[in-house]
Write a structure and sequence with these properties.
The protein is mainly alpha-helical. It has nine helices and six strands, in the order H-H-E-H-H-E-E-H-H-H-H-E-E-E-H. The strands form two sheets. The chain has a three-stranded antiparallel beta sheet. A three-stranded antiparallel beta sheet has the order 4-5-6, with no helix packed on it. The relative contact order is 0.07. About 9% of the residues have low confidence.
């Protein structure tokens, strides 16, 4: 983390800043550009409570400001789940230099971003192709990993379902085998037919029974 951040003097000449932003908006914007949580790549974690505390605003005011900067001005994006914020034009003023220390710093910070989709928001403001390539690589690897995780989860879910189905099948077979197989017995004059749930077992008559039957 750097101990200072650049705020270009052109900030104060921007027509949108001059004509649309209120004094409260300008303070909020400067804070987003310079607060201690900022990173070299322009994506960083920060909570609304921290913003409110450090600016002396209420949470309600911060929510209003966040909504205005996201939906009205289009200056930022914020992920409420990961608590990550990104600034649209960050790359224009902060990612315009090269060198190994800069590239190593960018690589390191890109790995720490949870919501890689936020990188797409900043990428158009970056003029250096080497840095754009690092952003593209991070976005691509995230998509590949996400796809692999989906495949793993699908395989795990299918395997678990198959295992449960097999267990249930074995359980049903065990329960069935413990039941009395012979459900009904129908007696005839000289033979007995045993009826099971899924088959019939015919008891072979004795010689005496056969002789008796022939004499009928």
């Amino acid at each position: 983390m750097a101990i200072y951040r650049h705020v270009h003097v052109e900030f104060w000449k921007d027509p949108k800043v001059l004509e649309e932003l209120t004094p409260e908006d300008k303070l909020f914007f400067i804070y987003l550009l310079t607060n201690p949580n900022t990173t070299q790549i322009g994506v960083y974690k920060i909570t609304k409570k921290q913003i409110a505390f450090e600016l002396g605003f209420s949470i309600e005011s911060v929510n209003v400001l966040m909504d205005r900067f996201i939906n009205n001005y289009g200056f930022i994006k914020y992920n409420n789940d990961t608590r990550e914020i990104c600034l649209k034009n960050w790359g224009k003023y902060n990612l315009n230099k090269l060198g190994k220390p800069m590239l190593d710093c960018v690589k390191s910070e890109l790995k720490n971003v949870d919501d890689k989709s936020l990188l797409e928001f900043i990428k158009p403001s970056i003029s250096k192709e080497e840095i754009v390539s690092l952003f593209d690589e991070a976005i691509y690897l995230d998509k590949v990993n996400d796809k692999d995780n989906h495949k793993y989860n699908d395989r795990y879910t299918l395997s678990t379902q198959n295992k449960k189905e097999k267990e249930n099948k074995n359980k049903n077979i065990g329960e069935k085998s413990n039941e009395i197989d012979i459900k009904t017995t129908r007696e005839f004059k000289h033979t007995v037919l045993y009826e099971r749930e899924d088959e019939y077992i015919y008891k072979k008559p004795s010689e005496e029974q056969l002789r008796y039957a022939r004499n009928l």
